[in-house]
Amino acid sequence: MAVTFDAVGPSSSGTAANSTSITWNHTYSGSDGLLTVGVGVGGNDGGVTTLATYDGVPMVSAGKVHTNNQTSGYVELFYLTAPSTGTNAIIVTCSTTKHLIGGSVSFNGVDQITPVSGIITSFGTGTSTSLTVSSALWWRSNEFGPDSPLEK
Fold this sequence. Notes:
Elements: E1 4-9, E2 15-28, E3 34-42, E4 50-54, E5 57-58, E6 60-66, E7 73-81, E8 86-108
Antiparallel strand pairs: 1-8, 2-8, 3-7, 3-8, 4-5, 4-8, 6-7
């Protein structure tokens, strides 16, 4: 079975708040599903813990990448296989008040045993980035710079 796109939530622009949590609804329909949630956390992140749930079910962290390998924020990708169908809440919580931004994407036809593997990251300075990805299903997050809303 081929991997196919299912849905994006809450919209193409995501959701953001200066808070300890953000919440939005995601509607999943299909089979052999994978729900991914991308979260950006702004500001100094020493000791910050971020968690995500979908319909009350904890999601797995696939990885965290710090801004330019420093401590001024990070992005983290969470995932959940076989998410419940229908419209359900995604709740992202942070151990302290931070500028949070998040969004979700779901797919069908995903390997339920090893849905995510071979995580690779890269960081640097400049105006362009490159990263070689050998998978048909990939997720990319741009680095945050001084003009990013996450730097607030």
